[in-house]
Amino acid sequence: MANKYVGYFTNGLVKENPTLRLVLGTCPTLAVTTAAINGIGMGLSATLVLVCSNLAISLLRNVIPDKVRIPAFITIIAGFVSVVQMLVKAFLPSIDKALGIYLPLIVVNCIILARAEMFASKNKPLPSILDGLGMGIGFTAVLTLMGAIRELFGAGSLFSFPVTANFISPMIIFLLPPGGFFVFGMLVAASNAIAKKNGKKAVEKMGCENCPAKDSCGQEECVKEETGDE
Amino acid sequence: MNSLTAIASILLAAILTNNMVLSKFLGICPFLGVSKKTNTAFSMSVAVILVMVVATAVTWPIYHLVLAPKYTYLETIVFILVIAAIVQLIEIVLKRYIKPVYNALGIYLPLITTNCAVLGITMLNITNELGFVESLFNALGAGVGFMLAMLLFSGVRERLETADIPEFMKGLPITLVAAALVSLSFLGFAGIGG
Amino acid sequence: MLDFLRRNKKEVLIPSAVLLVICVVIPLALALTNRLTADRIAALEAKNREEAMARLIDAEEYTAEKYEDQFEYFVAKQGGEEVGYIFVTAQKGYGGEVSVMTAIKPDGAIKAVAILDVSNETPGLGQNAAKENFYGQFADKTNGISLLKNGANADQNEINAVTGATITSTAVTRAVNAATEEFEKIRSVENHGE
Q1: Are C80 and C9 part of one and the same domain?
Q2: Which of B181, C45, C161, C171 is deepest in the core (most CB within 10 A)?
Q3: What is the pTM of this model?
Q4: What would the pLDDT profile of B142-171 be if each residue is shown by its tens digit?
Q5: What is the least distance, in Å, from the CA of B3 to any CA of chain A?
């Protein structure tokens, strides 16, 4: 029994890591990871929203009619995002400045809507909280790792402490947009290689197919688009 | 004349230097998901441009006439709901009155509600304190920039299909590296429209 | 109408009611959070501004003044005497607004400049404008400051741009020049008054 609960939690850490395995929430993953601390700030803000929205949606899962569930979920998520936004502004203003509009954009972070739709609306509160926590920490870990890599190569520092900055000239390209795409590509390649070694499949789906709104959007088209046959 | 140059500079900045996808990282999901073929990339982009401009035309007055200055904390929740409603409305109107356009764009519309580029542009218009007309052109430019990135990238991906790629890089990794190169080429536009 | 609703209770009434309740409860919760955090956010902003002003120019008190509804500035007073004027100005940089605080001595020379916000600029390039070896150059300059590229030797009223970030450097310089213009305006009013 307890094992099952551990499973809900660890699922999001490695096996179904939202960033590297489900390829959700790519926008903030690329945008804010110019420094490790931004990765932590973004990750934890999203985790807080994810846990709260998973809990709320799980509690309301029998109350919300199926027909209006997507607008209801979006409203609930937007509410929690606004609360987190105000709290960050009041207590961590430097993080607020670094994240800019990506903080309110957590609303449209697919991870949160996807977990609401795929997990919280079908499960009891406790598993939903654990799922949100695991997914959130998995997201935070990848964002922090990516922020650390980009900061180390691009600015020669880690968490703002100079590491190599004094004897190797930093490669600023890592902090610029191309560096974001490149580092993320390398991380996915590494995670695919590790997954293959363990007998799992590489990530094939991307974007559209993992989108929680795909059910409502002529899923056939999405799948057709993805597999490329018409 | 002066306002014309101002608008031209907003458009250029939104399309090239501050490209939604390649420099602001907004709308990455459709950029990776719907860019395999040039024609689908085009239809999706047209839908995005439409929603961006209409959403800006609605959210800007709401923010400045209703929310500001006392209720600005409702910005996020009001904007996302307004965008969701607009998308629904556009879908209904197109379905009812302009059937051919609906057939071409219909399936992409629901995807756009959770597209961060749309919510992003409406919010950027507010944070950058743009006026109403400037905001509309900024939204138009951002949409066109999105289309430009989608079309360029779909061309790159069609080439990737036939390329010989190392096993571990196949799929998403090589797509991201290709995106890095396209985004690198956009860095060359830095300075235009400043 | 009523009959229609009764028949469609399950289809229409219940979903609408649930949505309505959600849409009332959540904004109420937000209003509550806003009440709890608004004061703190405002106090934090005021404190940051005070601290930035104190770093620029040493004075006992800073009083906000208005110039003909056009802009706001602060007068720094030490022992009842005006020791400087502080202006907050912003200009468009690479990714958005760059805002700068400039302290000007009564004789018109710049006392010091502080960079308030470059968070929209590129990390590693434009954001380097927030380092002292750039903004420190403004001290003792007067007005009409121009920007030099490629590390040439700066003369009177010239400063060197941040490497690789001409746009951000230009934005900062323009903002400082705007502050000196505002200073000229208030000084001409004061001179007329005497």
Answers
A1: no
A2: C171
A3: 0.83
A4: 999 999 999 999 888 888 888 888 888 888
A5: 27
